[in-house]
Amino acid sequence: MRILSGKIEDRMLHIGYYQIVGGLLGLILTLRTFIYESTLSGLSLLFYVVAILLFVFSIYSGNLLRKKNIKGLYLSTWNQVLQLIQISISAFGFEYYSGVFFNIGFEWTEKFIPDFNFGLSGWILRYTENDLNHNSVYINLIPILILYYINKTRHEIEERKQLIESAEKINQE
């Protein structure tokens, strides 16, 4: 009996390809933006490097899943967790999406404004001393769904491992 059933392998492939495509799209869009950037400061260069590393991480995690490597489930969990919350408070902001995103949240300046957004791979890392009134919090619903399937897959793998161990124990007796 194999640890990974066909159903588990298929799920890993789907999540893996999703992360690979999302990472490649994000990488292409980031490099395109970087090429057309008119002025680069040290901080903006650092932000581009972080964004590129995040998209490469998505591709790497997805590729591990594509190769049916269980470590890919652990790394993919972290990749999805990084995409769960997008936040902007005062001078700082962080958004990262690798693949499709559908956000529900709110912005507040002088008023509390509920909002939702959807789109494809992207990122925003922001530090500014000028725009101190930009505050928002969004939750990306897509990673919640993917995390559900990752956890379900990990649970099924653990069940299969226990079943194999039990069967081996019975055969030894």
UniProtKB/TrEMBL annotation:
Entry protein name: Uncharacterized protein
Keywords from the UniProt entry: Membrane, Transmembrane, Transmembrane helix
Sequence intervals crossing the membrane: 12-35, 41-60, 81-106, 135-151
